[in-house]
């Protein structure tokens, strides 16, 4: 967003111009960093697209953050200055939200702020994990390596999550299509056939009565049923946004047969990979556990990470603390203990992360292989039930003539 401002310098010189910032507060802060006393500031009325003002449609994709990390690392390796790097990337960015953030980061760095501090103000783009990795790079003087680490880590995380999500797209589409077809048949087809069957006066099988009764109920009370389902959906959505609801939902995910095991391995892979990346970058175990708690995306494992961080602060090894939680497999605890005793914890965590990534890949492929025949059986049974309930009475009627 572009803002027009009027300001006065410390020497009393009036100055006006424009500044590009995500919002007015950030614009004011950026101008104050330039030692300007703001007299007035207002947004310029820009022409936006259909969804330009809707924040939901303004977001930065994970792939864009990965590419940004690669570009920053490349420019740092080429000895391009920090200011020139971020200014160049801001100018070249096609995403307006990312461009605004990079412009603000450039202004903050120009005002003397560290890169990590400037990035921490944009939590909708750069996570705590990302900022901590950048900070470790600043402290060690290895900024290019830190951004390469980040790009590699985000690439792995994105690929793993995408594989799990994409595996569910096809089953969800087929099941949704089946439900829509069944509803259309129950609402429009079955009632007409039901009238013909009832007019014959013949005794109907129990399954036919059930199907016709269900059809009558949906036809008569479908609108109320739809409102009830919508209300229940809204209630569940809001409930899962509460701390208790999120905890129960995460617990339910882990309790689903087979799928829960897949989720567990996904979270363990994320934890091991995250800890390895941060420990390799020189971040302390306590801080690595705290940040892992924020990026693991599960309330149960988040609580384990936070409690483990408190235990490590008290002087206990992380493996000993993990051993008290059944959600952490014994093999992982034993491997971490070996890593702690040998001083190669980072290597061990990297090995565990690769192991669980392979396990997730194999389990997703197996799940997809099982879902397809399972869906065929379920869909076949559903269609067979409807056809049998309607066609058998008609067949019996035709046989009577």
Going by helix content, strand content and strand pairing, the class is mainly alpha
According to CATH, what is the topology of the largest domain? Receptor-associated Protein
Count of individual helical segments: 15
- Write the CATH homologous superfamily of the largest domain: Type II secretion system (T2SS), domain F
CATH architecture of the largest domain: Up-down Bundle
Number of strands: 3
* Secondary structure: helix percent: over 70%
For the termini, the CA-CA separation is 79 Å
Overall structural domain count: 3
**Percent of residues in beta strands:** 5-15%
Explain what this protein looks like in three dimensions.
The chain is mostly helical and 401 residues long. It has three domains: 2-43; 61-155, Receptor-associated Protein (Up-down Bundle); 167-401, Receptor-associated Protein (Up-down Bundle). Helix content is 74%, strand content 6%.
Main attributes of the structure:
401 residues, Receptor-associated Protein, 3 domains, 15 helices
Compose a concise summary of this entry.
The N and C termini lie far apart (79 Å).
Lay out the secondary structure.
Blueprint: E1 2-9, E2 14-20, H1 24-33, E3 36-43, H2 62-77, H3 82-92, H4 96-110, H5 115-120, H6 128-140, H7 143-200, H8 206-240, H9 243-255, H10 259-280, H11 285-295, H12 299-313, H13 318-322, H14 330-342, H15 345-399
Antiparallel strand pairs: 1-2, 1-3
Helix pairs in contact: 2-3, 2-7, 3-4, 6-7, 7-8, 7-10, 7-15, 8-9, 8-15, 9-10, 10-11, 10-15, 11-12, 14-15
């Amino acid at each position: 967003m572009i803002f027009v401002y009027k300001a006065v310098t410390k020497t009393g010189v009036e100055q006006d111009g424009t500044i590009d910032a995500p919002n007015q507060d950030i614009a004011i802060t950026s101008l104050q960093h330039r030692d300007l006393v703001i007299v007035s500031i207002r947004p310029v009325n820009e022409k936006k697209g259909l969804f330009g003002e809707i924040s939901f449609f303004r977001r930065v994709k994970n792939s864009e953050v990965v590419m940004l990390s690669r570009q920053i690392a490349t420019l740092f390796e080429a000895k391009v200055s920090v200011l020139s790097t971020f200014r160049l990337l801001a100018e070249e960015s096609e995403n307006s939200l990312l461009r605004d953030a990079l412009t603000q980061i450039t202004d903050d760095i120009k005002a003397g702020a560290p890169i990590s501090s400037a990035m921490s103000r944009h939590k909708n783009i750069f996570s705590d994990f990302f900022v901590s990795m950048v900070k470790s790079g600043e402290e060690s003087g290895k900024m290019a390596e830190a951004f390469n680490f980040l790009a590699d880590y985000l690439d792995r995380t994105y690929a793993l999550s995408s594989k799990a999500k994409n595996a569910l797209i096809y089953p969800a589409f087929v099941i949704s299509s089946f439900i829509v077809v069944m509803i259309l048949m129950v609402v429009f087809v079955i009632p007409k056939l039901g009238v013909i069957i009832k007019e014959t006066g013949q005794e109907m099988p129990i399954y036919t009565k059930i199907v016709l009764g269900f059809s009558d109920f949906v036809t008569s009370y479908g609108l109320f049923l739809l409102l009830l389902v919508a209300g229940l959906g809204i209630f569940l959505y809001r409930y899962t946004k509460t701390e208790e609801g999120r905890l129960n939902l995460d617990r339910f995910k882990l309790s689903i047969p087979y799928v829960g095991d897949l989720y567990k391995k996904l979270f363990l892979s994320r934890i091991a990979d995250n800890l390895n990346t941060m420990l390799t970058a020189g971040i302390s175990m306590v801080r690595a556990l705290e940040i892992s708690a924020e990026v693991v995306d599960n309330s149960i494992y988040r609580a384990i990470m936070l409690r483990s961080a408190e235990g490590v602060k008290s002087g206990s090894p992380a493996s000993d603390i993990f051993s008290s939680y059944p959600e952490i497999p014994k093999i992982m605890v034993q491997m971490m203990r070996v890593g702690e005793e040998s001083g190669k914890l980072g290597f061990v965590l990297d090995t565990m992360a690769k192991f669980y990534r392979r396990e997730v890949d194999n389990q997703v492929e197996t799940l997809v292989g099982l879902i397809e025949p399972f869906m065929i059986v379920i869909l076949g049974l559903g269609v067979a039930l409807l056809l049998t309930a309607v066609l058998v009475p008609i067949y019996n009627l035709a046989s009577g003539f």
